[in-house]
Amino acid sequence: MSDEIRDVVIVGSGPAGYTAAIYLGRAGYRPLVIAGALTPGGQLVNTTEVENFPGFPDGVMGPDLMDAMQKQAEKFGAELVYDDVVSTDCSGEVKTLTLDGGDVIHARAMVITTGSRYRKLGVPGEEEYSGRGVSYCATCDGFFFRNKPIIVVGGGDSAFEEALFLTRFGSSVTLVHRRDEFRASKIMVDRARAHEKITLLTNAVVDAVNGDGNEVTSITVHDVVSRETTTLPASGVFVAIGHTPVSDFLNGAVATDDDGYILVDGASTRTSVPGIFAAGDVVDRTYRQAISAAGMGCRAAIDAQSYLADKLDPANH
Fold first, then answer.
1. 32-34/85-89 β-pairing
2. Rounded to 5 degrees, what are φ and ψ at 189?
3. Is 298 annotated in the active site?
4. Is 137 annotated in the active site?
């Protein structure tokens, strides 16, 4: 693997990565997909039923959808490696990627589809009780907290969407936000204010997630104005404070914005480095949907094909 120069390598394996692999595979480029060591398939593998992906009128389970995408990519010649990229050298026409397991991969083109990860609170108890009361996905875990008190942390549309969704399950839903104004749209805030199960707690910062060793029992918050500390009962704590794009492994090789989202040229997927393309949630801070990521993966594949066609003799394919 270390000596061969590949035509194209895809880093990431969510809807964007697999779609790019399908298109590049069908074009004859035998893409290598660096799928990730722990979470191949992206965030959808942690999602239960997906009801808004076109073509599935009865919905589809997230893992099933990603499994089908993977098989389709492999059918057209994509090769998968379950490892993580730890460093890159993108300075020349041939890009070099070093994997955590020690393999070194060389490729003429690279498509980055590494997505984003949930932003965490970074408070005591959060890691300890992750999966045991602390969650980052209401649709995945809401049903575990039927008739129990639920906390949602955040102030944007996603936090309000989660709070409203969780009213189906919880005995109460308290949305905790560090400011006295919300980033969320007015209609979302109005809906929450009107809902009998939802309480909005503003100017409040979570200091700790507390539990009995097995599961979450409460959170500790303090008021940023009065400095008063309060303990709120909670069985479920849903953290919805945004996402962090997974672009740090590039170590500044391509241009990003201040938050780490990769910058692309207009409606294309071209990055600041020729031969490197990016698609999906690592680019998209606005939509973050499986279908929009898949569409962008298609565009990245076509952009990469165009780039490779200029670099390679078409007779080789």
1. unpaired
2. -65, -45
3. no
4. yes
